[in-house]
Design brief:
The structure is a single chain. It contains 9 helices and no strands. With 265 residues, it is mostly helical. It has one domain (2-90, 113-264).
Length: 265
């Protein structure tokens, strides 16, 4: 009975949050596509600095160990990003070799069709989802009602950062919304895996939760600062700059609001 409740709660939180984020990103907010990068950067930074890191540092783990994990995570996602760019560079090199008579300007334009950050987002999402699954499982084991509240809290506070994920991954998939939703949903489904593992090994794994939180935070920080923010640094008019700052603040504000609501309950 408890295991079934954990599975239902983790699936609802992990995948339901993605679908709700998709409805907002590609439905209600779809008309603001040019400002979505600012919103995504704000949501990812807000999730890292206002939710994941504070929660990790509330634990009994030594700050030195958590900061070391954060540094290792940032370097890891940098290397993952380099591997992704190297892989796409080889793909384009192979295409150019196989079409020697193709116009050069076509290859140059094609070379920018794979922005970076995709694997870092999915890896960070999966680590974060696994940690959320352990948290939900722990709550259900303690009390069924507490488990349902925890699952609802996870669902709500994941929505803003999943909006950022979907916006980044849509750019990865030639503006294909369906592929972006499927990728983030698969990462969200790892919540159920975390729930099952947490049900079996809750006492052993609970002590590692702060490290999961910091690793997830490092991925969101890396994507926001290395991929999204540089794109907003281009010269723009005062009106465009004000809009960028406003949408960045909205992304941060959304995370702040739902995090406080989740903690209040």
């Amino acid at each position: 009975m408890v295991l079934m409740a954990i599975l239902l709660g983790t699936m609802a939180a992990g995948i339901g949050s993605v679908w709700l984020a998709a409805l907002l990103s590609f439905g209600a907010l779809a008309r603001y596509t040019q400002h979505m990068l600012s919103l995504a950067a704000g949501a990812l930074l807000g999730t890292a600095f206002l939710h994941l890191l504070p929660e990790a540092f509330e634990s009994q783990v030594a700050p030195d160990d958590l900061f070391a994990t954060l540094l290792v995570g940032l370097v890891f996602f940098f290397l993952l990003d380099k591997a992704e760019l190297w892989h796409h560079g080889h793909e384009h090199h192979g295409e150019a070799s196989g079409h020697a008579h193709a116009p050069h300007h076509h290859h140059a334009a094609h070379g920018h069709s794979h922005p970076s950050g995709g694997w870092a987002i999915l890896a960070g999402d999966s680590v974060h989802a696994f940690g959320d699954g352990i948290l939900i499982a722990s709550a259900f084991i303690a009390d069924m009602r507490l488990g349902f509240v925890a699952a609802l809290a996870v669902l709500v506070h994941e929505v803003p950062h999943h909006m950022g994920d979907l916006i980044v991954l849509r750019r990865q998939s030639a503006n294909n919304r369906r592929i972006a939703i499927v990728k983030v949903s698969l990462a969200g489904a790892v919540t159920a895996l975390g729930g099952v593992v947490g049900y079996v090994l809750v006492d052993q794994l609970y002590g590692y939760l702060p490290f999961f939180l910091v690793l997830a935070a490092s991925s969101f920080m890396y994507v926001a600062l290395a991929d999204l923010i540089p794109q907003l640094q281009k010269r723009a008019s005062m009106q465009e700059t004000a809009a960028q700052i406003a949408w960045l603040a909205i992304g941060i504000g959304m995370v702040m609001a739902v995090s406080r609501l989740a903690h209040a309950h």
